[in-house]
Amino acid sequence: MVQNRSLLLSSSSWIFEYARPVFPNTIHVGPLHIPDTTKPLPEDLEKWIQGAEKGFIYFSLGSNVRSASLAESTRSAILATLAKFPEYRIIWKWEEESIDGLPNNVICRKWLPQQDLLAHPRIKLFITQGGLQSLQEAVHYQVPVIGIPFFGDQNYNARVITRIGIGTFMEFEDIGTAKLVKNVKEVLYNESYSANVKRVSSIVKNQMMNPRDTAVWWVEYVLKAGGNVNHLKPEYYHLSLFQYLGLDVFAVLLTPAVLLVYGGYRLISTYTRRWTQAKLKTN
C-alpha cells in the first residue's frame, strides 16, 4: 500500500511539530475542520456569559474522557478550585443531567458548541485534554489553554502548549490539587500567554491558501496526472523489505566483523592444537 501512495495529507500544522524533512508528496493541510464563520451561542449561554465580571472559562475533557467518571474527591477539588474565581464564569462540559455542589459561577452542559464558545470575545481560558483538534481550535480563535493530557498524542500536544508559549499543562494526577489553582492563575493573570497565542494564530493563518483549498488543489493535481506522480515519491517506495529495513547495509558491515572473529577463532584453535601436540610429544 505504501508503494501505491501518491499523496499524504496531514491534518497537522508545522507550528505544532518540530522542523524535519518530509517528502514532496506529504502536505500539511491542518486545520481542515474549522469553518469560515461561527454561529451565535444559544440565548441562555450568551446571557450567562454576559453576566460575568471578567469573562468566562471553558472546561472540557473532550469526547473520549467523561468528566462525570472522575472520582468524587477529584470532582469536589475541581469545583472548589473553580469557586475561587468568582469574577469569572465557568462552562463545564458534563455528561450527566446535574452535579452536586455546583458553585454559583459554574454551569454544566451535556453538549456544547465548542468552536462557537472559543470564538466568543469574552472567553479567557480553555481547559482541555489536549487533543489535536481542540489545540488547533484554541490557536485559531486565540484562546490561552491549560492542557490536562490523558493518553495518545495528548501528552505530546500538552508539551507543545508550553513550547510555543500559549499556556501550561499539568498531569491528570494533579488536577485535584493546588496545582490547578496555580495554573489557572498563571494563565489568567500572565498576559504573555494571550500575546503568544495571538502571535501563533497569525502564523498559522498566514498561508497562501486556506487548508481546504490546499487539500483540494493537491488532490486535483494527483487526479489530473492520472495518479502518475512518481516525481513526488521517495525512492524508498521501490525498495524491497530487505533493503527498506537496511539489512543489506547491516550485512555488509557485519560480514568483516564475522570474518575477523572467525579468523581469530581459527588462528587460536590452530595455535592451541599445535601447542598441545608439541607438549604431548615432549612428554
TrEMBL record:
Its main location: membrane. It comes from the Eukaryota. InterPro entries: UDP-glycosyltransferase (IPR050271), UDP_glucos_trans (IPR002213), UDP_glycos_trans_CS (IPR035595). It is found in: Endomembrane system; Endoplasmic reticulum; Membrane. The chain crosses the membrane at residues 241-265. It catalyses: glucuronate acceptor + UDP-alpha-D-glucuronate = acceptor beta-D-glucuronoside + UDP + H(+). It is an enzyme of class 2 (transferase). PANTHER family: EG:EG0003.4 PROTEIN-RELATED. Belongs to the UDP-glycosyltransferase family. This is UDP-glucuronosyltransferase. It comes from Cacopsylla melanoneura.
